Amino acid sequence: MIRTAFVTATVMGALLAAGSAHAQLNVEQIVSQKVQPILPKGGGGGVAVAVRMNSNTQFFNYGMADNAQNRPVTADSIFNLGSVGKVFATTLLAQGVKQGELSLNDPVAKYVTELQRGGDIRRITLGQLASHTSGLPDVPGQYEHWHRGKYTWPDFVRFLNSWKADPKHDPGKQYLYSDTAMVLLRIALQRRFNTPFAALMHQRLTGPLGMTSTALPLPRDLLGRAVQGYGSTGRPIGRPGMEGGTFQWRGSGQIYSSSRDMATFLVANLGELSDHRPIENAMALAQQPVFTVGPRFKLGLAWQNVSAGNFTIIDKNGGLPNTSTYIGFAPQRKLGIVILVNRGKQHATGIGRQIIHALAQDQSEPSSEGEPNPDNE
Predict the structure, then answer these.
(1) pLDDT digits (tens, 9 = 90+) for 224-252
(2) Fewest CB within a 10 Å sphere: which of 223, 261, 262, 324?
(3) Is the model's pTM score more than 0.85?
(4) Which string of DSSP letters, residue by residue, matches 141-203?
(5) Distance, CA of 274 to chain centre
(6) In this predicted model, what pLDDT tens digit does every residue of 202-216 receive, in sequence order?
């Protein structure tokens, strides 16, 4: 196992430097202990961790980005984010709401005009798409059992216009995790701003934040830093930077990023980037609960709001056959974590929550609420 740790800290005098070193040691010990279950015991794979605490960001890296190339994981290794990428779309939506450019109550058919010929799809709002309360299935094939292969854009429009709500799939009435809804949200944002989603994300979010290693799809100049993905047993799956999934049109695939970039995204979500207040205000709106699933589980715009005792974590997770990802934070404590694993079916969510509780020195049992396997892999 190869492990490196990178620490960003501001040192003010010898006493503070010593205190910072002590804090670093504690954080490193906690992270190293908690990530053991997802460190590869054989085969390929590695883990990149970013921790934000006490206004400092620390990076801890374990294992291999690519076994065949003998390339270790670093803070600049680029991973497939899986469903963690959904919070980019919902942040852009919240930004548009804050700026008066659209509303959470707008019907999606207002912007995706092909859907004005449909039925129940016309009842669904942007806010319902963003909070997994639209009633749409996770993937269209769960509704159209007869369909074979990926969905092209005409296939997708046909499905949406033919979709019918029922008591278990009623817009605004229940929580049903839906990749379909989030892909449709991207299209609605594209149409509203007359800009491809990837360009919109760069113009309004990742560009201003300086997230130069975050992209959809991954461009050629970043492919050299992309990790090889591995299955749960360590077998290589696909190629670095590969776009997979149900949908087959440009901009419908997964977002890629590094732990360094995602640490910036985390810091902004904690409200600690004073020169980016409009973006932080949008992020704060996206985090706010809009639907209550249970007493200790509420939904924001893609974000999960989970409570254990008096301790609350806001988080999002993702997983595909060759990637497992997590971003979570305790807003009251101004601390959070990013975990990126280039191996599928790893328990990044549970481990992330354990680390947050340990860093906060909170004794309550971490919540098991929320979506354990958001990409159904």
Answers:
(1) 999 999 999 999 999 999 988 899 999 99
(2) 223
(3) yes
(4) GGT-TT--SPBPHHHHHHHHHH---BTTB-TTTS----HHHHHHHHHHHHHHHTS-HHHHHII
(5) 23
(6) 999 999 999 999 999
Backbone dihedral angles phi then psi of residue 143, each to the nearest 5 degrees: -105, -45
Query: Which residues, 6 or more positions from 158, have their beta carbon under 8 angstroms from its beta carbon?
Result: none
Residues 6+ apart with CB under 8 A from 39: 1, 46, 47, 62, 63
CB distance 96 to 102 below 8 Å = yes
CA dist., res. 319 & res. 340, Å (int): 10
Question: How many residues are listed for the chain in this entry?
Answer: 377
Q: Across residues 14-43, what is the average pLDDT?
A: 72
Q: What is the pLDDT of residue 63?
A: 96
**Complete DSSP assignment for 195-261:** S-HHHHHIIIIITTTT-TT-BSS--GGGGGGBPPPB-TTS-B-S-TT---SSB-STT-S--EEEHHH
Q: How many CB atoms lie within 10 A of CB 198?
A: 19
Interatomic CA distance for residues 274 and 33, integer angstroms: 33
- For every residue of 263-308, DSSP letters joined together read HHHHHHHTT--GGGHHHHHHHHHHHS--EEEETTEEE-SS-EEEEE
Q: How far apart are CA 162 and CA 316, in angstroms?
A: 31
Q: How far apart are CA 283 and CA 277, in angstroms?
A: 10
- Residue 20 pLDDT greater than 90, yes or no: no
pLDDT tens digits, 60-112: 999 999 999 999 999 999 999 999 999 999 999 999 999 999 999 999 999 99
Tell me the pairing of strands 71-72 and 78-80.
unpaired
199 CB contacts (<8 Å, ≥6 apart)? none
Rounded CA-CA distance 298/209 in Å is: 28
Question: Structure tokens of 38?
Answer: 């997802």
Q: What tokens appear for 133 in the block?
A: 């309360």
Residue 245 in tokens: 């999934």
